[in-house]
Amino acid sequence: MASCVGQPISWLVLEQYALDELPPVRAAQVSAHLEACELCRNCADSIGASRVALRPLEVADRAAPKRVSPRRPWWRRPVFAGGLAAALVATAVVLLWLRTGKDGQGPQLAQQWPPQRLQVKGGELALALVGERGGVVRHEPRSFRDGDRFKVLVTCPPGRSVADVVVVQDGKVFYPLAAQTISCGNRVVLDGAFRVDGASPITICAVVGPPPGLDRRALDVDRLRRSKRAVCQTLPPATSKR
Amino acid sequence: MADATDTVALYEKYGPALVRKAERILLCSDDAHDVVHGLFVDLMQRPEKHMDLPYLYRAVTNRSLNVLRDRKNRARLLDRQQGALRGPVRSRIDDHVVDLDLLARLTELVDARTLEVLVCCFVDDMSQQEAADHLGVSRKTIGKRLKKARQRLQRIAANGPEEVSNG
Predict the structure, then answer these.
(1) What is the mean pLDDT of residues A123-129?
(2) What is the b/e burial string over A25-41, where b = at least 16 CB atoms within 10 angstroms of the residue's CB?
């Protein structure tokens, strides 16, 4: 292999040269060196020939930079205030639970689905849907019609995880896609798509966690509602006629 | 201060150059993408004022070396390294090619700043003066750190790989 005719042009300068970001004088020096040096020219050519497919970078909800809070007294710090709020919420839930029990219907859990986006260890877990109706693709659909087709995108902390999609309608649980191992990142597109129908609202959840993933046999609606690894979106049937 | 949209534009502009740079250190495309993606995800939340290519280059060096410092990562990278990602070797330190194997051995023998100088001079192929400008230190400091690295390399050469007991 040939050696450089002088001091090699650093990779940083070669990248700046390729991006046309060097001052004219320096760019001329680099051009002259590349004319004379086969080794550096090969490096420069490799930059031009390289095709790097970047992972998507999500803009939503990240626009606001973190603010640095001034030092607060201990009773106003988030940990204490959060703990207090959690205790109050827990008390309210227990009271509501007991009261519901007295009505003769038995204690019931709050009928809430996991959010569409939540913070988990290592980052964020989020669900995004892409719908297709009559050839028209809609990002973040708010409703569905009979025959609409959906794809699921998940955002999860880096690493390998198993993702499973669960659809709940009228209390029935469906698994429209095969469970799949994914390399987590921003808006990872799960393989496959599925159609929905019916006149009742549907809840679409992505359950993302470490292998071996979701135990479908043990899953029921209550367990899904309580899951810390699920993100869900509920879509009502579309009412307007087209 | 750059906002999130600016950061995305920078990612699209400089991302490929930074991935190539991380690949030369880590010799693993997936990890290189992780490093660059992670950097920009953090920058979206805490944008910096002057995010030009040299600044980002340095950030990628430090993050890549952080990946190497983790013993499990090191073993995994050494096991799966894709040598072609290193690119042509244009500079050597005392006839040694600074590649993943050598960086992995030196990780626990030299400090972070010395490793950074090694990457600048022998992976990124900067001159000592260019490395000094890039890192914001004097050329004399670069010389001192390289001297320290050379001493460690001599020890490795004399004692063999056992020099790095935990590597």
Answers:
(1) 88
(2) eeeeebeebbeebebbb
Mutate to test the interface with B, among A10, A160, A186 (most CBs of B within 10 A): A10
CB contacts of B19 in chain A (<8 Å) are 52, 54
Contact B93, B122 (CB under 8 A): yes
Per DSSP, chain B holds a count of helices (H) and strands (E) of: 8, 0
Distance between CA A145 and CA A202 in Å, rounded?
11
| Whether the model pTM is above 0.95 | no
pLDDT of residue A96: 59
CB contact under 8 A, A50 and B20: yes
What part of A 170-189 touches B (C-beta under 8 Å)? 183, 185-186
Q: Which residues make beta-bridge pairs with A126? A: A117, A155
Q: What is the CA radius of gyration of chain A?
A: 27
- Residue B47: partners with Cβ closer than 8 Å, 6 or more residues away: A65, B1, B2, B3, B4, B6, B7
The domains of chain B are located at 1-87, 88-167
CB contact under 8 A, A11 and B125: yes
Question: Is the model's pLDDT at A30 over the cut of 90?
Answer: yes
Chain A residues near residue B57 by CB distance under 8 angstroms: 12
- Residue A73 has a pLDDT of 60
pLDDT attached to residue B23: 92
Backbone angles phi, psi at B154, to 5 degrees: -65, -40
Q: Which CATH architecture has domain B88-167?
A: Orthogonal Bundle (1.10)
What ipTM was assigned to the predicted interfaces of this complex? Answer: 0.91
Average pLDDT, chain A: 80
Phi-psi map region of A2: left, alpha, beta (phi>0 left; psi -120 to 50 alpha): beta
Q: Taking CA atoms, what residue in A is nearest to B5? A: A59
